[in-house]
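Re: weekly structure request thread

Next one in the queue (107 aa):
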Amino acid sequence: MRGWRGWSEEPLMQTRFQAGDAVRVRVGDPPRHIRTPAYIQGKTGRVAAVHGAFPNPETLAHGGDGQPAQPLYLVGFDPVEVWGSGRTVSGERLLIDLYEHWLEPGE
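Done, posted below.
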């Protein structure tokens, strides 16, 4: 079933990653709209959840239809890896929604 702007309410049949998988955010500097913060690029985290498939916002921003829909993941990061040990509180976790095309297998 299709919902708002092409979002699929049906479970994804195939995703590259599952909850618990280690993933690394690829590093990129495309000269266009992106939905991946620069401070998280190159960092490794773990998939916390798979949200479903959504239109690609990087093509929607330029008047495209966002198709094919991209799997969207909730990825958790240790803030110490992102910002260093002096800038975080013990037990914190940084959660960011990231599209599959920005993720690689982690180590």
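The two ends are 36 Å apart (CA to CA). The longest strand covers residues 44-54.
Next request, please.
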